[in-house]
Amino acid sequence: MPDNKVIVIVGPTASGKTLLSLRIAELFDGEIVSADSMQIYKYMDIGTAKPTPEQMRTVPHHMIDFVSPLNTYTLADYLTDAKKCIDDILRRGKLPIITGGTGLYVSALADNIKLADMAFDEDFRAYLADLARRQGAYALRRLLRSVDETAAEKIHDGDIKRASRGLEVYRQTGKTPTELNRESKREPSPYDFYMIGLNYSDRAELYKRINDRVEQMFKDGLQEEVSKLRDSGMFRPGSTAYQAIGYRQFGEYFEGRITIDELKELIKRDTRRYAKRQLTWFRRDPRIKWINMVNPDDEYLDDLIKKLRKDIEIFLKV
Description:
Layout: E1 5-10, H1 17-28, E2 30-34, H2 53-58, E3 61-62, H3 75-91, E4 95-99, H4 103-110, H5 122-135, H6 138-147, H7 149-153, H8 160-173, H9 177-184, E5 192-200, H10 203-220, H11 222-231, H12 240-243, H13 250-254, H14 260-282, E6 288-293, H15 298-317
Parallel strand pairs: 1-4, 1-5, 2-3, 2-4, 5-6
């Protein structure tokens, strides 16, 4: 097998990426590298749907559960760390399998985007955080749109982290994130990617899976997990935990403005909306080979693996 082959599995939340990646890893002696911007954080297990301890014992996983929710972890950090993982896996003769739903992580890795290390102005960052508190998170996206409409269209109103990052990049370099991304793509990636995308032709089935997952998260102790984060000081405006879907919605609940049932419905709604944004992002990439999922149980996955196996074997031998 050539020493630069990498499998990528993407798709919306709850589409079955984890189960498929485990099957492919077991079949092709692979190791999984997460491309999930929230699974990197410690203490956020249930709400981010991390792989189970048993799954991580069965197949080695990387880029999961190693950053404090209070720490800043940038796209540049991810690219540096993920490439180290990929190179180490390839060096040991294994197959790297990138799995996750954070489109920015996957695209930046596949497009070989290079981000220069920048010492950002902490005063400016504090100013942006204060602006978001006073005028709402959408104010940052509106400000970013005034200098880089393309970058602003790729994020949603509540994404304080990425809107702030775009504005910081522009202030520091004098160039917009879109300009820098365009410049950084001039050198092709050293990796050869086989990219698989999971979707459901019946959108109602995907939404049902999302709703069921949220219900299961509460049964597994999501409320208790968020309460511990709150008690430890990690659940506060500006922290990563506060921004994540499945966590930030608890703010209204803790303030007594919504009931637990209303909280569940809010998380379900926001997760469904996030899934739509994920699909919109990934559909722009012509390299992705799409699979319409039906019901990713064991029997279905067995049949799917049989269909994928030949194509993957050809890819690995080229």
